[in-house]
Design goal:
The chain is an all-alpha fold. It has a domain of about 70 residues. Helix content is about 70%, strand content about 0%.
């Protein structure tokens, strides 16, 4: 198994765990803790992919393992930002650089 495939498998695993944590949210401390842990695991998997592959390839891999309902306007803006080769992070609507 090559590195890209291993990263894809791990991203798929943590994506399923994250979706499961969202689906079982009931407001309890346990469900909020599960969700927080799943989010942290997902962030770590994304960071590992980013470190190993670089921004463009990592984004492609993350998107390939994402569920279709997970795409947000922010993700679309980030995809466009990477495609343009920008160096400065995009700001949220209404924010300005200091």
């Amino acid at each position: 198994m090559n590195e890209r495939h291993a990263l894809a498998v791990e991203l798929g695993r943590v994506e399923v765990a994250l979706q499961r944590a969202y689906a079982t949210m009931d407001g309890s401390v346990e469900s909020r803790t599960r969700l927080a842990r799943a989010k942290e695991e997902y962030r770590r998997a994304e960071a590992a992919a980013l470190h190993a592959l670089g921004a463009e390839d990592a984004l492609e891999l993350v998107e390939a393992t994402d569920s279709p309902c997970a795409h947000t306007p922010e993700q679309e803006a980030l995809r466009a930002w990477i495609a343009r080769g920008e160096r400065e992070l995009p700001l949220r609507s209404g924010e300005r650089h200091a």
